[in-house]
Design a protein that fits this description.
Layout lengths: L6 H10 L4 E4 L13 E4 L6 E5 L4 E5 L4 H9 L3 E2 L8 H4 L7 H6 L7 H4 L2 H4 E7 L5 E3 L13 H5 L8 E8 L1 E2 L3 E8 L3 H13 L4 E7 L8 E8 L1 H14 L6 E4 L2 H12 L10 E7 L4 H8 L3 E5 L4 E6 L14 E7 L2 H6 L8 H14 L12
Parallel strand pairs: 1-2
Antiparallel strand pairs: 3-4, 4-8, 5-9, 6-7, 6-8, 10-12, 10-13, 11-12, 11-15, 14-16, 14-17, 15-16
């Protein structure tokens, strides 16, 4: 496994590559079709390079452990607003999640409904393209990149357009208080209606999830509010009253217990160690219960107000035929290497989008050496 310690070394390694490269961060997210190639780890490119709490700005090298980033921010009462998922328990992996891996996968958690995705917080990137050239956001002018929004382009590209060396974020203050309204015993359809009502309210919901087998056992519908102490207390009370028609509810205001509830949702902890493949389905919330019924899944968690479904199904099964006629897309997150070879991991793109994707890869990786085949 090649492990550069500087951006210059990374560029030299990519430039000298005689064949495909398998790009690795912390090794915690083996998502995508298996890639055959020489391993290239960016874990050696580590460290926070700039942090200005007053400007809410942080810049770090791509191999910096996510835990280090979070600790630096927590010391100043700040955080990454998009709540990145930790895949280790779900996927049964070890290693250390890196900030570059978070960006490469556009990894975003429950707070996306309020704060946006990883790409929305990302304000700058540096990366090495498939030629071995170093490119930075807005800092290099060349015909084949001028006009592209490199920041948005790199988020979610899974290392197929370039190898990230540095990323910059806008960060936000941590809230003073949190409250989680918990509704018990709702069926999926009723739960989605309750989540929609909460999200349509003026009470600034930052998390909206449901599971028929929740973290406390039985069906649980979770709605999170964050902010100043008095504001959270007022909004939680008003939201409880608004949702009274959906049944009895309780409020969890202890920060540690509330955080544990949302880690359970964020990291899909209920599926950890359970058999079967895991799919991540993005769709219109009102379609969710119908999709779940068609899937005959062994386990389901709704997030993003019902707009994101985590489904655990029988191993080796392609669920996309069951989603025919439903607007949205499904990504295979956990499966064997054999299944990830046979079943498309990422949703097949319509012909016009596929042509654009091929064109982008040809521009940024003309030799086709960066994680070839990973995204199909």
């Amino acid at each position: 496994m090649m492990r550069p310690e500087t951006e210059a070394e990374l560029a030299d390694m990519v430039k000298a590559a005689a064949g495909p490269l398998r790009i690795v961060g912390g090794g915690t997210r083996p998502i995508g079709a298996p890639v055959a190639g020489a391993g290239l780890s960016v874990a050696g490119l580590s460290g926070v390079e700039l942090y200005e709490p007053g400007a809410l700005t942080l810049v770090a090298r791509a191999g910096t452990p996510l835990a280090e980033i979070e600790a630096v921010l927590a010391a100043e009462g700040q955080r990454l607003a998009f709540e990145p998922m930790d895949h280790r328990r779900l996927l049964g992996t070890e290693g250390v999640p890196t900030i570059g891996g978070v960006v490469a996968g556009n990894v975003s958690g429950p707070r996306r409904i309020q704060a946006g995705a990883c790409r929305d917080a990302l304000i700058g990137v540096r990366f090495v393209d498939g030629r071995g050239d170093v490119i930075k956001n807005g800092g290099r002018v060349m015909k084949n990149v001028t006009g592209y929004d490199l920041v948005k382009l790199m988020a979610g590209s899974w290392g197929t357009l370039g190898v990230l060396s540095q990323v910059g974020f806008k960060v936000l203050p941590r809230p003073a208080a949190v409250a989680v309204i918990v509704l018990h015993g709702l069926d999926d359809e009723t739960a989605v209606r309750a989540l929609s009502a909460a999200l349509a309210s003026p009470y600034e919901v930052s998390g909206a999830a449901h599971a028929s087998d929740g973290p406390g056992g039985g069906a649980q519908t979770l709605i999170r509010i964050e902010g100043f102490v008095e504001s959270v207390a007022y909004r939680a009370g008003r939201l409880q009253a608004l949702l009274a028609g959906f049944g009895q509810s309780t409020v969890e205001g202890d920060p540690e217990r509330a955080a544990a509830l949302w880690r359970w949702v964020r990291d899909v902890e209920g599926f950890a160690g359970q058999p079967g493949d895991v799919w991540r389905i993005s769709l219109k919330p009102s379609d969710g219960p119908r999709v779940v019924a068609a899937l005959e899944a062994e386990g389901v968690v709704y997030d993003w107000g019902g707009g994101l479904i985590w489904a655990r199904v029988a191993a080796g099964r392609d669920i996309r035929p069951a989603l025919a006629g439903i607007a949205g897309h499904a990504t295979l997150i956990r499966a064997s290497a054999e299944t990830r070879t046979k079943v498309a991991v990422f949703a097949p793109e319509p012909a016009p989008l596929a042509a654009i994707a091929r064109g982008l890869r040809a521009q940024f990786d003309p030799r086709g050496i960066l994680n070839p085949g990973l995204m199909g």
